[in-house]
Amino acid sequence: MKPDHLFTEICFEHYNVYVPFECRRCGKRCRTYTPRIAEDTLEEIAHYLGKPSYDVRFIYEERYKKRYRSDALPCPFFKGETNECGIYPLRPECCRLYPFSFGGGDTNCQAYRRHIRIVSAIKKQDQYRDTYDSSFCPNQRKKPIPGHKWPDILYQFMLMETSYLMILKFIRINTISTRGFGTPERYSYSTT
Ligand code: SF4
């Protein structure tokens, strides 16, 4: 089972910390970007939207051709009134992985900036060896956070104006085994 959210993995010498990314649905990226979508997916999208496939392909291709213009246009599937993706279940992988696709997120994205700040704060806890997005390829040899480190790490995380939901995600992701992401495996430290 894949994780239900994106996260950054920070590898310290004796343990790893996973920092989840929380999308705020600001839609900033979708307002200025049109992703590459495969031909057969466009067929599926037309079916999903209940529109003729010729119309969907034509609108998409016209927009895609203009994607590098200075006055960047929104993705043709973006619903600006509600800040939603109109093809959410069929959105391409680069959109599913954003902000960890394209080699980095958009600095106009508040959630991305906050994520970077949290990662930097946690890195200050100890000497780290590596930091990377491992959302689709988690480290199978996860080393759990030792009990004496956990209170400081959790405190640093909470200092970054994190939401209650994010705190729960952070605790959950760091207190289960990454092996399969499906089997909760509690360690001996307490989070209270
Ligand atoms: S496909 Fe959806 S998520 Fe991707 S850029 Fe378009 S509106 Fe945004």
Explain this structure:
It contains six helices and five strands, in the order E-E-H-H-E-E-H-H-E-H-H. A hairpin with a 3-residue loop joins strand 1 (7-12) and strand 2. The model is unreliable at 178-192 (pLDDT under 50). It has helices spanning 39-49, 53-65, 93-97, 110-123, 150-159, 164-174; strands spanning 7-12, 16-20, 78-79, 84-85, 128-133. With 192 residues, it is an alpha+beta fold. The chain has two domains: 7-25 and 105-174; 39-97, no CATH class. A three-stranded antiparallel sheet has the order 2-1-5. A two-stranded antiparallel sheet has the order 3-4. Helix content is 33%, strand content 11%. The longest helix has 14 residues, at 110-123.
Secondary structure layout plus pairing:
Elements: E1 7-12, E2 16-20, H1 39-49, H2 53-65, E3 78-79, E4 84-85, H3 93-97, H4 110-123, E5 128-133, H5 150-159, H6 164-174
Antiparallel strand pairs: 1-2, 1-5, 3-4
The structure holds iron/sulfur cluster (SF4).
What characteristics describe this protein?
alpha+beta; 192 residues
Name the bound molecules: iron/sulfur cluster
The overall pLDDT average reads 81
Q: How many beta-strand elements?
A: 5
| Sequence of strands across the biggest β-sheet | 2-1-5
Major sheet: 3 strands, antiparallel
Uncertain segments = 178-192
Q: Any idea what the radius of gyration is?
A: 19 Å
Question: What is the count of structural domains?
Answer: 2
